[in-house]
Every structure is written in C-alpha cells, then in structure tokens.
C-alpha cells in the first residue's frame, strides 16, 4: 500500500533492514527476520521483537523509501503487511510501477527539491486514488462532494455543469510534469495543479478536441494525448489509465453526437439528460456499444448482465469457456477470445429453461428446432435461469405463450376455413391486399432462375457449395441460433451459394431479428410513403435508372418499382438520413438476392449499424472519411514500402471513397462484388479494410513505379476490370451487364475468391474491436477537419468585406461558434441546436439568436462602459438581421464589428444613425425602462419565429433570387438614408450619452452632444419660420419647446449622473410624445453629420483606435464566466 510520505533520518538503523533493490531515487527494503534465510541471529531477535509487540506497533516487513543522491534524508512511500492477506507481489508491483512511470520522469528536473516535491505529490495523489471506490465516485458522497467543491471553486463553470469523475495524474507543461487533479465533466476536460507557488489551470471543451489517444514515448511509458486548439496535452501516471481513457473517449463521443449530429439519446436514459451523466452510465453505455457491435444487435438493446460460464459445444464435444451476455431480448454467448465460437439466441426463440443442476451450477436453455444449450459453472445460475424465464415471458408474443399444439390446431383450422371460403381472405381484420404492391421474390430468382438439370462444371461446383453449407447447418445449426465459428468464416471466404445468399445476409447482419420484431412494418411504410413528394423522393427518382442499369432486373418496371419502394420507405422511416447517393447501388444488389422486405431491413442494418454515419446530411459523409482514416493507419502499419514512396496518403482516401461507400460494388463486376458483400455482412467493415490492403499489396510494384496520381488510378481501374469469379453460375449476359470494360484480354485475370483468401491470410490478424477503437480515435479528427474546412470557407468569404485579419477572423469565428454551443451544453432541447444544419451553405451552418448574440456582442463591442448594452444589442441585432428571420450569421456579425472598430467617423455615425430607424428601432416609441424581451412582443415589427431547417422541398427560386439581389446590391450612400424624426432623434442623443458614459473625457463629450442637439433644434426652428412666415406663434415655437425638452436632459447628462440622465431622457421623451409633435419635424443624416464634425471631442472619440485583439483575448476568458454568472 502507498503511504503518506514521512521523513526517516536513518536508512539502516541498527541493521534492522536489508536492501533488496535500489536505484538512484528509490530503495526497496526487507525487514530482517522475514523472507529467505531469516537473517541469522539478528533476524531472530528482530522477528522476536516484532512478534511480542502489540498489533499497533508492528512494522511492515517490506517498504519502499525515496531519496536523492545528495541527501541523507529518506522518505517512506510504500509498505506491505503480509498478515493483511496480501503477499510480497504487491510491493513488487509498486516497485515496477515506480520504475516504469516515475524514473524516466525524474530526469527532467533540475533540482533535488523539485524531485522530492514531485514524488510526494504523486504519492499523495495515488493514495487519494486508492481511497475512491472502484464502481462510481457518487458511492462515496463525502469525497465526491469535496471534489465537487474544489471543481466549482477552481474552474468557475456554470452551476449546471455536471462533474462525472476525477483522477490524480501528472500534466506535462513543456518538459516538466505538474502533479494535480484531472476533472472530467459533461462538457469539459479540466486540470488543476498548484505546486511550488505555480498554478496550472486548464479547461478544454470536448467539442474542441481534435485527437484523443493513448501514447507512449521515451520519457512517458504510457499517457493520454489530447490535441485541442493546435496544442498537445499529455496526462500520465494515472493509476487506472485505461479506465480514465474509456471515460474520456465516451464523453468526447457523447459531445460530438449531441452537438454535431444532434442525437437525442431517447432510448438511453443514462445519456438523455446532460445534467445527469454519471461515470456508471458512461461505462454501461460503452459496454452496451461493444456488445451490440459484436453481436450485430439493434440499437435498442443494452447489456444488462454478464456471466462467466462454460458452454457445451456439440460439434467439438467439449466445454468452451466464455461469457453469457444478456440484454432485453437476446441471450448471447461468446468464447473467451470471441473467435472460437459465438451464438445469438433471441428470447422469442426460447421455449423453456430446464431446472438448474445445483451440483454443476448448470442450466439448459431449450430453443425452437429441437435444440438445447447447456451452460455450466455459472456462479449465479439460479437467478440467471429466473431472469431468462421472465424475459421470455415478457418478450414472447401471444402466440408464443400458447402451446405448440394449440398453435398448430388454430393454424390448421384457419387454413381449412379459407380453403372453403376464399372470399373471406380479404375480410381479415387489419389486413389489406398488398401482395401486388410488394415483391415476394428476390429479383435473381425471377430474372435468372437456376436450372436444376444443368450439370456444367460451374453448376456442379455451386451444388457442392450448397452441400457444404447443408452439412454445416446440420452440425452448427441453422437460422438465428446457429453457432458462428472459424469454419463459418472459411465457408464465407470460399463463396456463398446463390440460393443461400439472401438468407445468410439476413442472418449475419442481424436484419432477420429486425424483421421478426417489426412484422408488417415495411408494408405500412410503403403505403404511408406512397405519393409523398420531398427532396429525398426527387433524388430517388433521379437515381433509379442509374442503379445497375444494364442488369436485366433493372431494365424492367419490376426491379425499378421494387427499388423505388425500398428507398422511399427507408427515407420515410428515417428522415434524418433520408436518401443519400450510393444507397441506390447497394439496395439494387440487395434486391437481387433478398426479398423486397428483406432488402429493406438489410438496408436498415447497413445504414444504421454496420456503416454508421456513412449516409447522413453532411456534404461529405463523415463515416466514410473515418474509415478512410482507419485505412490510412493500416496502410502505414502493413505497407511501409508504399508509404515510403507515397508520403501523402490522401490519394488513397480519394480513390478508396467509392470502395467504402458501395462495398466495392461500383468498381468490381457484379459477380465478384457479391462475394465481397458476403464477407462484409459476416465481418463488417473489417472485411472491406482487409480487401483494400490486399488490392494495394497486389499492385504494389506498379503503384511504386507510377509517376503521378492519374497513372495510379488507371492501374487500379485496370486491376478491378480484370477481377473475375470463375465459380459464378450467372450467365454471360448478367456478368457483362455489370462490367464497365470488357477488354480483359490484355490483363491477367484475378479470381475474387483467391483475392479474398489472400486478404484474410495476410491482413486478417487485426480484430474488429481494434477497428472500432480506431474509428473512435479518428472520428474526432475527421469531424474537426470538416468543421475547420467550414471555418476556412467562411473566413475566405467574409474577409472580402471586412478589414479584420485572417487570424482575427479565426478567433472571432471560434468565439461565435462557441457561443452557439454554450447554449446547447446543458439541455437536450435547446432551440440553438435547430440553428445548426451542416447541409446548409457554409455561412448558414452556425447562426445566433438574439440572446446568444447579445451576450457575445456585450463582450466585443468597443465601448467598454456603454450603458444600456442590452438595448443597443437589440437594435444592432435587428439592423444586421437582413432577412429578418431572428438569426444572425457570422458575416452579418462581422459587418457590425468591422464598422464599430473602423477608423471612419462617418461610417460609425451612419451605423448609429441607422440603429434608430426601422427595423433597428421599433415604429412605436421606445421606453428605456421596458424589458428588452418585451420588445419582441410589443414591437410593431417583431422578429419572426425561427423554424427548424429540414430536408423538405428546397425553394431553388428563392435561393436564386437572393443570390441575384446580393449581386445587384448597390453601395449605400448617405443620401439614401431616410430622415430621422423627433422621437428617433431624442433616442439617438441618449444613445450617444450612454456610449460616452465612463469615458475619461465624459464631461466634455456630454457638453458637445448637448451643444449639437441645441444647435440642430434651433436650426430646425429657424428653417420652419423661414418656410412658414404666416404661421401662428404657437406652431412656430413648437421646435423650441422640443429643444427645451432635450436641453435639460443634455445638461443633466453632462453632470455625470447616468441614472438621472436616463430618467430625465425618458421623461422628456414621454412629454414629447404627449405633445404629439408634427410628424414632418425631422433631420437628415447630412445635418447630423455636419453638426457633429464641428465637435473635436466627439470626432476624436469615434476615431480613437480600439485594439480588437485585446478585446478578443478578454472575451475568450470572460465568455464562459459570463455564462456561469447568468
């Protein structure tokens, strides 16, 4: 056990200790009288002394001391008590951990004091780590409460932020590690350290992380690497590094799915509320994800129980050790390494659980088809048996709960009835005659029925394959409860018979379970989606005749109609995906070998489980890019010669995109591509990655010798055209229909079975779990790369219209985007999430509503002491929201800041002048004491409600019109501005007072405004007298009375009392409104500009240069604190 470091002055007092191991900084000692030899007479005396002492005074027989070469002081840091149920192995483990994790680190310190301080801090952290429970931190409320208080004190995050867990670790800042605490919360990764007077504080939001991985190097044996904002962060010396990494990985993935993909986690209560995320919930989610991926189960299934047991394997005649995994509707078993065998048993197939055998702790599960599975050595076998029984009772449908004899009798009576009364078939309750609408046969059986009398070599080999599979079925079972073994994979590699392809695809993909648990669902979807018109249906119609166009099945209405129904039904079922390119090619192949309903559920399995995020609303499919990044990693590991020749592997990403999107269907002849699909449904994306490596390996020499990318593409295209399937029983017409180039005479043909076999032999060593881990690691980088591309495109467009530098626009964009996400961190149903749509144009992907805009604008506006900021923010928001949709994009935001930070007095004044004209200010008179939120309600031109964007019909004419207006837009001149009326002018004057508030020259600025206001009003009065010489005196003096109403306000503003000025200004405005002034009374912008130009104080204030870089730095720090204060 680790000990709190205590000082020991004498290393070997009275020769009571024997040194067993030592190095420059640590010593492992054994107490004399223990261990080998006993230590002679001295050891006997020491042992006797330790024995006669009471238990509170006993000394540990082993200990570890820390020291430095130039010091005589030693520190005890670890010991072990043999009587406590542990052995010497524990102290050896401590010693090994120090050797691997601490020794290399200590070499970077310059002074012995720093070394000792670091070791002491690390040991104290390990003690605190061991003090936590292994399950979840909330199990020890007191310690977690203390950690939560430190977390809130140190990082000052909003009160809603949920701390998930914390760990003691070292953070590497430069070459020197800082011992401290790592805090993991729902939205942030935080670290805090205070050592030798130096404080280190780090806050990184999960959505800003580019890379998260476990690494090792010369100094750090193992650490966690985090890349964010272009900076590398390393966390090492974690007591439970793997556990920490899994939690970090889960939190980062959770953030990406919630904020970028807008997933709501409706079926997962543990993740549905970001304010209730726990360590236990994340760990359970990670295990459930792994469980579903391995057994190909629906996303609704969650891992509930795991039991270690032996399963009697009848085909091998022995018990294999493995784990029973139980979910809501499935009982699964996998051997210890997962490769020997595994089996999936739907609860609906279980008909009985025999009485457990207490002697061997065994239970037998009976399934349909007269099969039984015997599990033995199950620790909690009785409870497991009861759980399975209860699950079967819950999940079984009504007909399953009855006896098989009763079911058989009812079915026979129904058959007899309908044979005698065929007209009653259409009168069954809830049934509709849809048999004509949905095809019940695979297209291959319709357009290429097998000739049983044909005995050519290919057909004979096809029959031999069928016989091999029938033998396999007899030994390993058939259907949903079949054993999956190495022999199954061998048969897949050799090729699946045409007649069994659809059945096996359904079984291996798990689609058979989807279809069984959703009876009649496809027929309903076809009926509901029939006749609908959306963007998806338009795209489907456009691509229907591009799907295997030369195959006979898709030259007729039968194949085209089936393809239309499947794609339309899926787009209707899952509007989040809808329809994406390449789905038509994949579905057309599925329809060749599976019935229409089966093809639909196969498409569901591919799009939603086997190829996650391949088909989504992003412009570039992120899922395929993730797998291409995994592919690049595998190329580096397995094909170093190719990497040495082609240092830029992005070429392979562009070439291989179609490989992943269409599972090689678009590049291989159809008779060869289906063999690849066979492997894909059994091994998932791993099969595609293996085959990709084999293709590059086969063409290695030619690729190395090529001079450019075009030549490399030609080499690969020729190779794919030369791939054949010598065992395919398809007729030449079908084979030629799917080959783009028939000229194969000049190329050596390659058999697809041999290519697949070579792929498995050479590159089948990596496991599916490793692929999933690599997927998670690369997904962060791919998502952030797409986001960075969006940012660069936006900056490129905006930079043409503003004066900010590229680096300043980069920082502004980061603040703008972060402000959007800050509104989404603590709720699942934030309206701001509806504003983010990656399918829109770059400028429209991130937009801010008024509340978000107001908070960010208050941090960046150049007048630091401006009063009534919320009011000014509202007017600015209304002015720059050109399309009046209640949202502001980044370009509009930058336009406002660019004007306010510019050096042109005229432009700034024009901007302020326009703020007091509609739509900036309401048509109604503005009350300065009104709540800003009320302006949206009581204004005569309120902001329109924001409607969520979706993949409905796109109004192309509206887009073209908007584009045309932007092109024809003329630059606005000061003569184009309308005149400002009395109420607007008074409010304009008050705005100037508010802007000047707090400025060092506040008093002179107030006097200047008062002088200009009086001057303008007197000018207006003189002008009216000259124009209307015969008007009555009362009417002629009306502007003077207005001037009087402004003058007191101006005088009081100049006194420096903002509260009084606000009240007076408001009062004066109300008096002016009560007098109902002449609506023709107004000023032009030229008049206001000319008057203000005569006041050097005002001109100097607006032309004063304000450094936006300083504001950006302050905003980065204050943005999160502002949210916390609110």
TrEMBL record:
<comment type="function">
    <text>Involved in vesicular recycling, probably as a RAB11B GTPase-activating protein.</text>
</comment>
<dbReference type="InterPro" id="IPR000195">
    <property type="entry name" value="Rab-GAP-TBC_dom"/>
</dbReference>
<keyword id="KW-0106">Calcium</keyword>
<dbReference type="InterPro" id="IPR011993">
    <property type="entry name" value="PH-like_dom_sf"/>
</dbReference>
<feature type="domain" description="EF-hand">
    <location>
        <begin position="868"/>
        <end position="903"/>
    </location>
</feature>
<dbReference type="InterPro" id="IPR004182">
    <property type="entry name" value="GRAM"/>
</dbReference>
<dbReference type="GO" id="GO:0005829">
    <property type="term" value="C:cytosol"/>
</dbReference>
<dbReference type="Pfam" id="PF00566">
    <property type="entry name" value="RabGAP-TBC"/>
</dbReference>
<feature type="domain" description="Rab-GAP TBC">
    <location>
        <begin position="495"/>
        <end position="684"/>
    </location>
</feature>
<keyword id="KW-0343">GTPase activation</keyword>
<feature type="region of interest" description="Disordered">
    <location>
        <begin position="1024"/>
        <end position="1080"/>
    </location>
</feature>
<keyword id="KW-0677">Repeat</keyword>
<keyword id="KW-0479">Metal-binding</keyword>
<dbReference type="InterPro" id="IPR035969">
    <property type="entry name" value="Rab-GAP_TBC_sf"/>
</dbReference>
<feature type="compositionally biased region" description="Polar residues">
    <location>
        <begin position="1038"/>
        <end position="1071"/>
    </location>
</feature>
<protein>
    <recommendedName>
        <fullName>TBC1 domain family member 8B</fullName>
    </recommendedName>
</protein>
<dbReference type="InterPro" id="IPR018247">
    <property type="entry name" value="EF_Hand_1_Ca_BS"/>
</dbReference>
<dbReference type="InterPro" id="IPR011992">
    <property type="entry name" value="EF-hand-dom_pair"/>
</dbReference>
<dbReference type="Pfam" id="PF02893">
    <property type="entry name" value="GRAM"/>
</dbReference>
<dbReference type="GO" id="GO:0005096">
    <property type="term" value="F:GTPase activator activity"/>
</dbReference>
<dbReference type="GO" id="GO:0005509">
    <property type="term" value="F:calcium ion binding"/>
</dbReference>
<comment type="subunit">
    <text>Interacts (via domain Rab-GAP TBC) with RAB11B (in GTP-bound form).</text>
</comment>
<dbReference type="GO" id="GO:0003094">
    <property type="term" value="P:glomerular filtration"/>
</dbReference>
<keyword id="KW-0963">Cytoplasm</keyword>
<dbReference type="InterPro" id="IPR002048">
    <property type="entry name" value="EF_hand_dom"/>
</dbReference>
């Amino acid at each position: 056990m680790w000990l709190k470091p205590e000082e020991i002055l004498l290393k070997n007092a009275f020769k009571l200790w024997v040194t067993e191991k030592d190095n420059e900084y640590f010593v492992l000692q054994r107490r004399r009288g223990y261990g080998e030899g006993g230590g002679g007479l001295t050891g006997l005396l020491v042992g006797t002394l330790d024995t006669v002492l009471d238990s509170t005074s006993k000394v540990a027989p082993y200990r570890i001391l820390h020291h430095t070469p130039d010091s005589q002081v030693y520190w005890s840091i670890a010991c072990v008590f043999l009587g406590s149920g542990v052995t010497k192995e524990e102290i050896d483990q401590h010693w090994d951990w120090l050797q691997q994790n601490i020794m290399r680190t200590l070499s970077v310190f310059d002074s012995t004091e720093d070394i000792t301080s670091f070791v002491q801090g690390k040991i104290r952290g390990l003690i605190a780590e061991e003090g936590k429970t292994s399950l979840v931190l909330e199990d020890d409320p007191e310690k977690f409460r203390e950690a939560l208080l430190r977390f809130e004190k140190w990082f000052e995050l909003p009160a809603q932020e949920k701390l998930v867990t914390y760990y003691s670790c070292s953070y590497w800042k430069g070459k020197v590690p800082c011992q401290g605490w790592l805090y993991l919360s729902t939205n942030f990764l935080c670290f805090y350290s205070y050592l030798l007077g130096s404080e280190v504080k780090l806050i990184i939001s999960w959505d800003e992380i580019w890379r998260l991985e476990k690494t090792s190097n010369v100094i750090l044996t193992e650490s966690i690497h985090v890349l964010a904002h272009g900076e590398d962060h390393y966390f090492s010396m974690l007591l439970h590094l793997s556990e920490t990494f899994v939690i970090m990985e889960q939190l980062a993935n959770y953030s990406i799915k919630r904020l970028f993909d807008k997933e709501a986690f409706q079926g997962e209560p543990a993740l549905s509320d970001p304010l209730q995320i726990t360590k236990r919930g994340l760990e359970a989610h990670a295990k459930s994800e792994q469980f579903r991926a391995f057994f190909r189960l629906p996303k609704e299934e969650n891992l509930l129980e795991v039991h270690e047991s032996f399963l009697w394997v009848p085909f091998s005649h022995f018990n294999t050790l493995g784990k029973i995994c139980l979910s809501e509707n499935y009982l699964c078993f996998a051997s210890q390494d997962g490769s020997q065998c595994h089996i999936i048993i739907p609860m609906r197939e279980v008909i009985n659980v025999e009485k457990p055998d207490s002697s061997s702790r065994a239970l037998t599960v009976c399934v349909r088809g007269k099969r039984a599975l015997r599990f033995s050595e199950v620790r909690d076998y009785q409870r497991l048996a009861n759980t399975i029984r209860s699950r079967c009772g819950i999940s079984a449908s009504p007909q399953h709960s009855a006896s098989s004899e009763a079911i058989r009798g009812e079915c026979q009576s129904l058959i007899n009835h309908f044979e005698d009364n065929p007209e009653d078939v259409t009168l069954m309750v809830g049934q509709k005659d849809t048999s004509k609408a949905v095809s019940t046969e695979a297209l291959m059986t319709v357009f290429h029925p097998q000739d049983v009398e044909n005995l050519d070599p290919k057909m004979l080999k096809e029959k031999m394959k069928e016989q091999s599979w029938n033998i396999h079925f007899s030994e390993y079972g058939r259907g949903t409860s079949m054993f999956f073994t190495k022999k199954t994979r061998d048969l897949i590699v050799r090729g699946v018979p045409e007649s069994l392809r659809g059945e096996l695809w359904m079984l291996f993909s798990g689609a058979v379970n989807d279809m069984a648990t959703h009876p009649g669902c496809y027929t309903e979807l076809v009926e509901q989606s029939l006749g609908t018109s959306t963007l998806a249906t338009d795209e489907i119609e456009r691509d229907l005749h591009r799907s295997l166009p030369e195959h006979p099945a898709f030259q007729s209405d039968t194949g085209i109609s089936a393809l239309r129904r499947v794609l339309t039904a899926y787009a209707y079922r899952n509007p989040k995906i809808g329809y994406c390119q390449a789905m038509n090619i994949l579905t057309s192949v599925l329809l060749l070998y599976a019935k229409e309903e089966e093809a639909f559920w196969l498409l569901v399995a591919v799009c939603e489980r086997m190829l996650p995020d391949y088909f989504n609303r992003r412009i570039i499919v992120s899922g395929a890019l993730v797998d291409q990044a995994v592919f690049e990693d595998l190329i580096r590991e397995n094909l170093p010669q190719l990497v040495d020749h082609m240092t830029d592997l992005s070429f392979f990403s562009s070439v291989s995109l179609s490989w992943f999107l269409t599972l090689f269907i678009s590049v291989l002849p159809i008779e060869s591509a289906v063999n690849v699909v066979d492997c894909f449904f059994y091994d998932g994306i791993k099969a595609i990655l293996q085959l990709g490596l084999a293709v590059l390996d086969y063409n290695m020499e030619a690729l190395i010798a090529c001079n450019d990318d075009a030549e490399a593409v030609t080499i690969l295209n020729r190779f794919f055209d030369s791939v054949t399937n010598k065992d395919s029983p398809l007729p030449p017409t079908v084979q030629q229909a799917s080959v783009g180039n028939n000229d194969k005479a000049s190329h050596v043909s390659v058999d697809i079975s041999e290519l697949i076999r070579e792929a498995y032999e050479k590159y089948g060593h990596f496991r599916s779990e490793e692929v999933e881990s690599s997927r998670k690691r690369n997904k962060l980088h791919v998502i952030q790369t797409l986001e960075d591309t969006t940012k660069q495109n936006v900056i490129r467009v905006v930079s043409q219209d503003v004066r900010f530098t590229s680096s300043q626009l980069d920082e502004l964009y980061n603040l703008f985007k972060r402000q959007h996400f800050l509104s989404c961190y603590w709720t699942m149903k934030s309206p701001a999430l509806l504003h983010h749509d990656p399918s829109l144009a770059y400028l429209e992907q991130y937009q801010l509503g008024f509340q978000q805009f107001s908070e960010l604008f208050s941090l960046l506006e150049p007048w630091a002491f401006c009063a009534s900021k919320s009011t000014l923010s509202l007017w600015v928001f209304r002015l720059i929201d050109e399309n009046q949709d209640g949202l502001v994009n980044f370009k509009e935001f930058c336009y406002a800041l660019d004007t306010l930070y510019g050096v042109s007095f005229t432009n700034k004044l024009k901007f302020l002048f326009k703020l007091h004209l509609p739509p900036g200010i309401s048509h109604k008179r503005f009350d300065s004491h009104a709540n800003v939120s009320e302006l949206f309600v009581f204004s005569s031109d309120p902001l329109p409600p924001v409607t969520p964007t979706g993949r409905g019909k796109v109004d192309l004419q509206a887009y073209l019109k908007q584009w045309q207006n932007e092109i024809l837009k003329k630059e606005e001149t000061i003569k184009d501005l309308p005149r400002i009326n009395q109420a607007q002018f008074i409010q304009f004057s008050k705005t100037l007072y508010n802007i000047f508030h707090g400025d060092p020259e506040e008093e002179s600025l107030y006097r200047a405004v008062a002088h200009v206001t009086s001057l303008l009003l007197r000018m207006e009065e003189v002008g009216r007298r000259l124009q209307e010489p015969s008007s009555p005196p009362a009417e002629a003096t009306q502007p003077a009375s207005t001037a009087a109403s402004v003058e007191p306000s101006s005088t009081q503003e100049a006194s420096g009392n903002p509260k009084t000025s606000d009240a007076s200004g408001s009062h004066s405005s109300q008096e002016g409104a009560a007098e109902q002034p002449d609506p023709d009374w107004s000023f032009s912008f030229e008049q206001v500009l000319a008057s203000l130009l005569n006041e050097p104080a005002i001109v100097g204030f607006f032309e004063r240069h304000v450094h936006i870089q300083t504001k950006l730095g302050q905003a980065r720090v204050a943005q999160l604190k502002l949210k916390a204060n609110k």
